[in-house]
Amino acid sequence: MEQSLERSSLPDQVFHRLASGVLAGRPGPGERLPTQRSLAAELGVNMASVREGIKRLEQLKLVDVRHGDAMRVRDWRAHGGLDVLVHALGGGAELDREVLRSVMEARRLLLSEAARLAAGRRQDAQSELLARLAAELAAAPDDESAQGLDFAFFATLIEAAGNLVLLLIANSIRDVYFARLADFRALVRDRERLQEYYAAAAEAVAARDGDAAAAAVATLAAAQEAALLETLA
């Protein structure tokens, strides 16, 4: 809050500035935020922009606003939902490595179980699409193309799993993924080596072999996880 904000999208900028501080523990849970009037002066914006930014913080359960009392920071790890994840992961100039490790671990577990479910619930068209995407990944001309195919492969897998909660969890980080594609490019860096696991997963889903599908996807996701964390180390 040391510098005034630019004049474009002021409520968004207020929200992101305050959210990044709260998620980083500045101020910490239970501590007071400055008054809205003080925030407006510090950030060089009008009160309407501050109110809108604070409203978004309240909706994410990052702050507690009570009439006649100070605004206080809430413990987002105790009260936040998946909608906080996008901001915790990618709200700054760089991805938060601690949050990223948790996200990638959860991704591996989610995709593995989605593959198991997909093997039992998939439709023929979904099975055929997985096989086609696996083949196209092997022939992808560049990382950018491969990244789109990788996303489509796993999106199809999750859709085939037929579980709404898994689908919504995947949706929760989709926006930050597409907003920062370059940061996640390591996921497909070793695609030639990993192509056999894409193909094995597609074949196992087609054969309705849940254990084999889960194992292939777990191996694939673990390798991608290691590659990404190594790149950002």
Morphology call: elongated
CATH architecture assignment of the largest domain? Up-down Bundle
Question: What is the overall pLDDT average?
Answer: 89
The CATH class of the largest domain, by name, is Mainly Alpha
Classified in CATH, the superfamily of the largest domain is: GntR ligand-binding domain-like
Rg on CA atoms, Å: 21 Å
Uncertain runs are none
Count the helices. How many? 12
Q: Which structural category fits the helices and strands? A: mainly alpha
Examine the coordinates and then state which fold CATH places here, giving the name of the CATH topology of the largest domain.
Four Helix Bundle (Hemerythrin (Met), subunit A)
Helix content: 55-70%
| Cα end-to-end separation | 29 Å
**Helices and strands, in N-to-C order?**
HHHEEHHHHHHHHH
**What is the spatial order of strands in the main beta sheet?**
1-2
Number of strands: 2
Number of domains: 2
Largest sheet: 2 strands, antiparallel
Beta-strand content: under 5%
Would you write up a description of this structure?
With 233 residues, this protein is mainly α. The chain is built from twelve helices and two strands; from the N terminus they run αααββααααααααα. It has helices at 10-23, 36-43, 47-59, 76-79, 82-90, 97-121, 124-138, 143-161, 164-172, 174-179, 191-206, 210-232; strands spanning 63-64, 72-73. α1 packs across α3 (47-59) and α7 packs antiparallel against α11 (191-206). The protein is elongated and about 65 Å long.
